[in-house]
Amino acid sequence: MQKIIDTFYRVLEVLLIFFLSAMAVMVFVNVVMRYGFNSGLNVSDELSRYFFVWLTFVGAVVAFREHAHLGVETLVVLFGRKGRIICMILSNIIIIAVSAIFFWGTWKQAPINASMTSPVTKLPMIWVYGIGFFTGAGVVLIALERLFRLLTGRVTEEEISAFVGEDMSLEHLSERA
What is the pLDDT of residue 66? Predict the structure, then answer.
């Protein structure tokens, strides 16, 4: 099962590379066309904006899985093991609540976005803003799994140290920067 999950996240990382590369190519080509040929591709402006939205929200799920989001460890570092676990539990409960609200907001907004189309590509806007379903559900599932492992005592010392920001290798720190 873990191999399937790791493969899924590897696919998401490849998707992120595609979005970023496509954005760079579209913007570069558009700049060259505007300055060199006094014309441009309207579709590249619109698609690069949408790719940026997708890149951000898919990347948020990947970053959350890898503990790569910003954290404030100043208070948590003062606690012992039990205090850190309590903070991890509270943190995951808050994350679940906020992500569920985000998912619910996307759900409530979906009929409006499905009825509107983008100006150039005529793409239904649900394809742009519907990424909130993926991000909200993805973060909730990851946080639920972490919460389950915390409540059943299956959390490792490495995870607790990562939550607090301790015992990180230089390689891990450079990845977070």
Answer: 85
